[in-house]
């Protein structure tokens, strides 16, 4: 998604920050996570470095829902004037879900479900094992997610219905998100 947005709107694309706040996944082998304070510091340092080079606007494309701290970083950056945006917002995701005709709701489709698997089937199908067709896992209410992590609600890491995924839905999701980025960019102009 970042490359598409960069290409479509003629924006400079920075290298991705490939580690994030993934503490809710810590019950699963191979999870590597950084603290919220580290992520906030990295984004703040990058923004300051860009500002020193004469670039005063930054769009953060967030690929992980657990990066809650980014909302605070963006709010603080925009105190004096709009300088930073966090994309996609919940409204952007909801619009993309509708545009793609997803059957599951945001609440049902938390992790490795219809939306995420559809995006992978479109962009990187080689990363998706056929087992996704039989991997549905329901955990629609997760009142203690911050305490138990995903392990408290799923044995596999899936919360959603990946069996509903398709490459066509993934393309529609990305098309919708690319269109909705225009509003974020306009706020920074």
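^ structure tokens above, recovered residues below v
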């Amino acid at each position: 998604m970042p490359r598409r947005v960069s290409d479509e709107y003629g924006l400079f694309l920075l290298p991705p920050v490939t580690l994030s706040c993934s503490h809710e996944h810590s019950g699963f082998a191979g999870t590597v996570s950084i603290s919220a304070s580290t992520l906030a510091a990295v984004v703040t340092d990058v923004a300051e470095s860009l500002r020193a080079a004469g670039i005063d606007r930054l769009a953060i494309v967030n690929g992980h829902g657990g990066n809650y701290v980014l909302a605070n970083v963006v709010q603080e950056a925009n105190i004096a004037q709009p300088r930073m945006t966090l994309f996609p917002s919940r409204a952007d995701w909801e619009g993309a879900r509708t545009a793609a005709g997803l059957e599951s709701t945001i609440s049902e489709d938390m992790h490795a479900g219809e939306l995420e698997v559809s995006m992978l089937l479109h962009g990187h199908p080689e990363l998706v094992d056929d087992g996704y067709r039989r991997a549905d896992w329901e955990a629609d209410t997760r009142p203690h997610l911050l305490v138990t992590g995903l392990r408290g609600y799923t044995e596999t890491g899936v919360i959603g219905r990946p069996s509903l995924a398709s490459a066509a839905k993934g393309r529609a999701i990305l098309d919708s998100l690319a269109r909705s980025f225009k509003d974020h960019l306009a706020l920074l102009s």
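The mean pLDDT is 95.
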